[in-house]
Structure formats: C-alpha cells, structure tokens
Description:
Blueprint: H1 2-9, H2 25-37, E1 40-49, E2 54-62, E3 66-71, E4 77-82, E5 86-90, E6 95-99, E7 121-128, E8 132-139, E9 147-153, E10 156-164, E11 170-180
Antiparallel strand pairs: 1-2, 1-11, 2-3, 3-4, 4-5, 5-6, 7-8, 8-9, 9-10, 10-11
Amino acid sequence: MKTAYLAAACLSLLPAFASAAVPTGSDIRKIENYLNSVTTLEARFVQNASNGNVAEGQLWIEKPNKIRMEYDAPTNVLIVGNGDFIVYHDKDLDQVSNIDYEDIPASLILGNDIKIDGENIKITDFYQDSGTTIATVEYAKGGVGPITLVFNNQPFELRQWKIVDPQSVEVTVSLYGSKTDEKLDESLFRFRKQNNPLKLKKGR
C-alpha cells in the first residue's frame, strides 16, 4: 500500500491508444513549457488504484521539488517533500520513512527545467484529440517507471497522471479545482510529527 501512495506522488478512463500518434516538436514543446512554467499548484485529488483502492485528499506543489499530499480519513497518510527528500508518514502505524526523489516517477512534474530530449526523457505513447492530450513519458535511467500525463487542451493544464507501481498496480491521480501560480505557505512543505496527547483517566 505504501508503494502505491508514493508512486502516486510521485486515470479515470483514458481513451485507448488505438489512435496513438507521434508527437510533433510543437506538441513536445507545449508539454515542456507547461511543466516548466507552473510555479505552484493546489488541487483536490482522487486517487484510484486498479486493485480497487480509492482515496481522496489535498495536493500542494511548489517547484522545484516541494510537494504535500494530505490524504483524507480513513487513509491517514501524509506525504511531504521539502526539496531534499520526501517524508512518508503512516499515521495509523505511526511510521515515518524518507524517500529519494529519484525513486518516484512523479518527480517529472516537480522540476522546473524539464527537457523531453528523446534520450534522458522520452515520450513513448501519445494521443491527442480536440479536448485532451495524453503522453506517456519514460526515463532512460533504470528503476523509475513511466508516468502517463493527461492534459486538458483548453486551457492547457494537467488533469491526471498515472503510474504502475512495482507490484503492477495502476495508480491514477485525478485533479479537481486546480489553482496555479498562487503563493503557498512554506510551512506546508515542512514535516512535523505530532505526538498524540496521552488520555488521562478522570479521577473521582
């Protein structure tokens, strides 16, 4: 379960790739320009997994490399990235883990100098119609799986991303009510573990 959440940080129903096309240079530049131009992003998200798990929460991103994914109950998971490392906090188990950015596919949407050059980062599947652009992006380096990005065309903005975790579970994150380029509180990207206060028994 932890792997799935991290990979998401890291689709409802996508059109089949039967009509997949080859992206033009203009298509690639449009995706690059969008990913590089967004400075902050805030949105509600719904996360669906192919094993049937569904979760919701709030997402904040400040580039480069800052992220907070706060899951609603009953999931009780918090993911916070401060730019150096990512903290995964399972509140139910009271467990905290540190994760490297290089280990999650979603690091692609956290950078501010993305270059889809066909060597280090390349598009392996592409679909476009009047309303949607879908691109599956792969890294040349091993250990990091592909990520599928789904954009609305008018206006051009990120709507969803999809990854496949090491257990072959597809994890999809869909964004709602997105706001971009607004100032975010820096405290969102600082992890502070809150200790549960001891419950005192009432005396007579």
